[in-house]
Amino acid sequence: MQEFTIRKNDAGQRLDRFLKKYLSKAPLSRVYTLIRKDCRINGKRCAENYMLQEGDVLSLFLTDAEITDYTAPQGKRNAKRQFSVIYEDENILIVSKPFGLLVHGDGKEKKDTLANQVIAYLIESGAYSPRAERSFTPSPVHRLDRNTTGLVVFGKSAEALRQLSAMFRSRTAVSKYYLTIVSGELKNELRLKDSLEKDEKTNTVSVLSAEEGSGKLIETIARPIAGNEAYTLIEAELVTGRSHQIRAHLKSAGHPLIGDAKYGDRRVNRFAEQNFGLSTQLLHAYRLRFNEAPPGLEYLKGKSFTSPPPPAFSAVELGLFGKEIPHEIER
What we know:
The structure is a single chain. The chain is an alpha+beta fold. Helix content is 25%, strand content 27%. It has 9 helices and 14 strands.
C-alpha cells in the first residue's frame, strides 16, 4: 500500500484526473478499477469525481512493483540546458528558447524539449520535487514553433499555471511582441484583422478577410523599426495568438518573412540563404508585458520582460541594414 497527503499543487482536481496523471502509464481501466476497489481518501471510498482537498490522506492499495510500472520516471538532474533564464520567482519562470528546440515533444522528438530541460533545471535547483508533487508538473503557458526563438513562460505551481494560462488566453492581460524581418518596405504601422483557416493535411493556414472567412479571427499589429526599399525590421504584436499567425498574416499583407519556406518569397529566400545561411523564418519573441494580473500575481502588473535576439538574427540585421539597431519602440 502507498499512502500520502495531498499537497496544495495536487488539490482542487477530481480524483480520477489526479490518478490519470500520477499513474500515467496505467491503463484507464486499471485507474477506474482502482478507484472502485483499491483507493481510500481519509479512510473512505470516494467517487471518481471527488474533488481532492489539501490535507486529504490518499491510500492506494498497490504493490511497489505496480507503483513503479504505472508512474513516469522522475526527471533527470544535470540534463542539457540550452535555454537562458530571464526571470524567476516562486510562481513563474520566464526563459528564452533557442532556435531548433521544441517546447513540447512531438512524434519524432519526445525527450530533448524545452519543457523537459526546464523540469530538470527546477529539480536541480530544488524548486520542484516530482516525488512530493505526485501529479503536478511545471509547464509552459504558451508555445513557440521549433524555429522561433525567445520568451516562454512557465507556471511553477498549479495555481500560478491556471492563472497564467487564463491571462494568456485573454486578449488584454498580456501583450506579446515579436521581432522579424520582412520583404518590402513598410513605412507605417499596419493593423490587420482577418480570418485564419487551417489545412490539417499540409499544416498550413490561409488568411481570408473577416467577412469572407469562416475560420478563427486573427489580429496582428506590425510596426516598422528600421528598413530600406527591400527589407524592413518590424515589431509584430499578437493581439490574438494562432498557429503561424504572424507568418501568414504578413504574407497576406504583402510582406512575407524572409527565409520562410511555407509562406515566404522564393527569390528572397534564395538570397537570404546564399548570403546569410538562413533556411527558415527569422522570428524572435522578444518582449512580454503584463497589463493585468489576478490576486497572487498582482506584482506582475505593469512589468515587462525582454530577451535580446540571438546572434544569427543580429548578423542578418547588420548585413541588410549596415548597422546594429535598437529594438525598443517608444510607447
